[in-house]
């Protein structure tokens, strides 16, 4: 076996060892509409299986139905519901996972017909977020999304809402409050929104300090499991948590790095996106996603080796458009080039423009990526000449740290600088500009 094949085999075995313990057996259900292409269906089902895997569920069977339009009452037809119930009985599955979002009434009707727990796509994603949240901020954001999802579904859920049932779909920070009434849920939603608003204010102050100091900001965005945290570690030695599971990162991590030009920037890792990301999550994580809004440059990271990489990029762009940052300066980062083929990278560049090919695992292409970031930031720099008294050494040091000093001379007790600095720093040192 070749060295690269041995390395990949070792990687695959490590992934298998990291699999979470299976807590529930499930049957996966998918409605196929005339507008769905075979590739879309295949990729969506594979992604749902991976989501279930990440949550700790074992998908024992997959059942699909083709219909011209969804059934308003139960999504799929009565006969197909009987098929799903029989599959649940055959595999002793206590849960049916639907590859779509169900209305509150559909969830109740399907649950009554099947006699098992029913989990839709949004509920499964929320469950994974609940498992992943570590900080208080992350837990509160997840619980807000959970409660807003559950509020219209409180009526008729009965025992399914009780904490004693536990398991996938009712886990996480909000687990202890699933049986409470609407009034208490609304009050908790109000309180969490107020807390998140305070977080947004605090983050705005922190960003303003960074901007005033002349430090550039770079945010890493991309589909879940694209390798953003690994890339952050490769760029900054941040030591960010890395795991081969969906949504391994929920809390932002920010680290500094000096670019080849000498300019100092901060890199921020963000929560991964996914197709049809629940709107409740986008809203709940607004404080976190504002790091993306305020960034000078975005690194759009994609797993170039993934068969659905193009669809992942389109999904990421869709979320960026939703939070109104689609026009921001962006560098396309084709990650995992140690296992991707040149043809895969070429096809992505043909469809989405020139990218920087890197491998966060091996470090290949990191220098080229840093130079690309420098180029994106360069248009924001303006060239100035300054005369600074030697007793204002802190100003000179700040220009060296945050700008690009082209020449430095001395005239008596004056430091004469020819430098490129950004607009924010230019405002701070305006009194010394010639």
Classification by helices and strands: alpha/beta
Helix/strand order: HEHEHEHEHHHEHEEHHEHEHEHEHEEH
Q: Overall mean pLDDT score? A: 82
Tell me the overall shape. elongated
Low-pLDDT windows of residues? 1-19, 158-164, 173-178
How much strand content do the residues show?
Answer: 15-25%
Oligomeric state of this protein: single chain
* Rg result: 25 Å
Number of strands: 13
Task: Describe the protein's architecture and organization.
The chain is an alpha/beta fold and 434 residues long. The chain is 44% helix and 19% strand. It contains 15 helices and 13 strands. The strands form 3 sheets. It has a 6-stranded mixed β-sheet, with helices on both faces. A 4-stranded parallel β-sheet has the order 2-1-3-4, with helices on both faces. A 3-stranded antiparallel β-sheet has the order 11-13-12. Helix 2 runs parallel beside helix 5 and helix 6 (136-150) crosses helix 7. The longest helix is centred in the middle third of the chain and has 31 residues, at 182-212. The chain is elongated and about 90 Å long.
Short description:
The chain is an alpha/beta fold.
For this entry, give a set of tags.
alpha/beta, 6-stranded mixed β-sheet, 4-stranded parallel β-sheet, 15 helices, 19% strand, elongated
SSE order and pairing:
Blueprint: H1 3-17, E1 24-32, H2 38-55, E2 57-66, H3 78-90, E3 95-98, H4 104-114, E4 117-119, H5 121-132, H6 136-150, H7 182-212, E5 216-222, H8 228-236, E6 253-258, E7 264-269, H9 279-284, H10 286-293, E8 297-303, H11 309-322, E9 330-335, H12 342-352, E10 356-357, H13 366-377, E11 382-389, H14 393-402, E12 404-411, E13 414-421, H15 423-428
Parallel strand pairs: 1-2, 1-3, 3-4, 5-7, 5-8, 8-9, 9-10
Antiparallel strand pairs: 6-7, 11-13, 12-13
């Amino acid at each position: 076996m070749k060295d690269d094949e041995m390395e990949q085999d070792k990687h695959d075995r490590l992934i298998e060892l990291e699999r979470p313990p299976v807590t529930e057996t499930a049957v996966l259900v998918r409605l196929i509409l005339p507008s769905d292409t075979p590739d879309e269906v295949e990729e969506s089902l594979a992604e749902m299986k991976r989501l279930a895997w990440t949550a700790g569920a074992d998908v024992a069977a997959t059942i699909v139905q083709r219909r011209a339009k969804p059934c308003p009452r139960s999504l799929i037809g009565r006969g197909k519901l009987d098929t799903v119930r029989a599959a649940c009985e055959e595999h002793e599955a206590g849960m049916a996972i639907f590859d779509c979002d169900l209305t509150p009434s559909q969830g109740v009707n399907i649950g009554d017909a099947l006699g098992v727990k029913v989990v839709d796509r949004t509920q499964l994603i929320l469950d994974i977020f609940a498992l992943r949240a570590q900080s208080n901020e992350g837990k509160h954001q997840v619980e807000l999304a959970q409660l807003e999802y559950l509020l219209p579904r409180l009526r008729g859920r009965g025992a399914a809402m009780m904490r004693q049932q536990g398991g996938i779909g009712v886990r996480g920070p909000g687990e202890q409050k699933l049986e409470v009434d609407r009034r208490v849920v609304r009050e908790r939603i109000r309180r969490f929104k107020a807390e998140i608003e305070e977080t947004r204010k605090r983050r705005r102050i922190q960003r303003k300090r960074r901007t005033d100091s002349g430090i550039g900001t770079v945010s890493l965005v991309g589909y879940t499991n694209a390798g953003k945290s690994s890339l952050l570690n490769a760029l900054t030695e941040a030591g960010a948590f890395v795991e081969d599971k969906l949504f391994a990162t929920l809390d932002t991590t920010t680290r500094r790095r000096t670019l080849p030009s000498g300019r100092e920037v901060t890199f921020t890792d963000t929560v991964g996106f996914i197709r049809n990301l629940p709107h409740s999550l986008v809203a709940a994580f607004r404080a976190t996603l504002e790091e993306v809004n305020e960034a000078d440059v975005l690194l759009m990271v994609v797993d170039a080796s993934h068969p659905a990489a193009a669809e992942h990029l389109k999904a990421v762009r869709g979320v960026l458009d939703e939070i109104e940052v689609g026009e921001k300066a962006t560098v396309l980062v084709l990650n995992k080039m140690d296992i991707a083929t040149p043809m895969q990278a070429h096809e992505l560049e043909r469809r989405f423009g020139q990218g920087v090919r890197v491998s966060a695992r091996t470090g290949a292409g990191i220098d080229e990526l840093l130079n690309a970031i420098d180029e994106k930031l360069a248009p924001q720099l303006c060239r100035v000449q300054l005369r600074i008294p030697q007793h204002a050494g802190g100003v000179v040091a700040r220009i060296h740290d945050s700008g690009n000093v082209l020449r430095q001379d001395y005239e008596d007790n004056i430091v004469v600088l020819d430098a490129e600095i950004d607009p924010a720093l230019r405002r701070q040192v305006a009194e010394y500009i010639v």
